[in-house]
Design brief:
By secondary structure, the protein is mostly helical. It is built from six helices and no strands.
């Protein structure tokens, strides 16, 4: 009863012992394989395409309202974010399909 009352009065939760081991789970082999796959895609495709498309996007983005390349600019922005998406997939070990 006293612990419940303390939790009600004190808005911050006290740190529990061994919370690190409760949060993280052991990864299975398929997750590891997909992480390696996404790392290879990131290094060989994600970064180079993001760098090239980022430069092109930086050059064309001020001109989109003048020329009317809004759809092309949005497609370039998705290509710029390709490296970020690959890095998220490496971190999560997300399968391709």
């Amino acid at each position: 009863m006293i612990e419940c009352l303390e939790d009600y009065i004190w808005p911050f939760k006290r740190p529990q012992k061994h919370t690190y081991f409760k949060v993280f789970k052991m990864a299975d082999c398929s997750c590891l394989m997909w992480g390696i796959f996404w790392l290879i895609v990131l290094v060989f495709f994600g970064w180079p395409l993001s760098i090239v498309l980022g430069g092109l996007y930086g050059f064309l983005s001020p001109l989109t309202t003048l020329i009317g390349l809004d759809d092309f600019s949005e497609a370039l922005l998705k290509g710029v974010n390709l490296g970020r998406q690959c890095a998220k997939n490496v971190q999560n070990g997300k399968p391709l399909c």
